[in-house]
């Protein structure tokens, strides 16, 4: 029944899907973004620009809002400004 689909099937990834929360933040005058009660360096994002912050259990990613390009990865416990 599924013979025509079989050549297109691939193995499942070894690592499980990482769950995250995604929020949009504006870069402050000191080039930081606020996440909960902490401030994180958002360089090289421009002051006043909006970035997407993905909050994982062990890391925080700061991404360009329009292209979703990764700008910075931070461990949340170690790098608050």
Would you kindly provide a written description of the structure presented here, covering whatever features stand out?
The protein has 81 residues and is mostly beta strands. The protein has one domain: OB fold (Dihydrolipoamide Acetyltransferase, E2P) (Beta Barrel). The chain is built from no helices and six strands. Strand 2 and strand 3 form a beta hairpin. The model has no long low-confidence stretch (mean pLDDT 88).
Quick recap of the structure?
The protein is 0% helix and 37% strand.
Main features:
two-stranded antiparallel ribbon, mainly beta, OB fold (Dihydrolipoamide Acetyltransferase, E2P), 81 residues, 4-stranded antiparallel sheet
Structural class category: mainly beta
Globally, the shape reads elongated
According to DSSP, the number of beta strands is 6
Strand content: 35-45%
Number of domains: 1
């Amino acid at each position: 029944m599924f013979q025509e689909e079989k050549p297109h099937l691939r193995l499942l990834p070894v690592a499980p899907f990482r769950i995250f929360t995604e929020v949009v933040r504006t870069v402050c005058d000191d080039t930081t973004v606020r996440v909960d009660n902490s401030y994180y360096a958002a360089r090289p994002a421009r002051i006043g620009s909006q970035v997407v912050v993905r909050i994982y259990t062990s890391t925080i990613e700061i991404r360009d809002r329009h292209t979703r390009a990764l700008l910075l990865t931070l461990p949340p416990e170690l790098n608050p400004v």
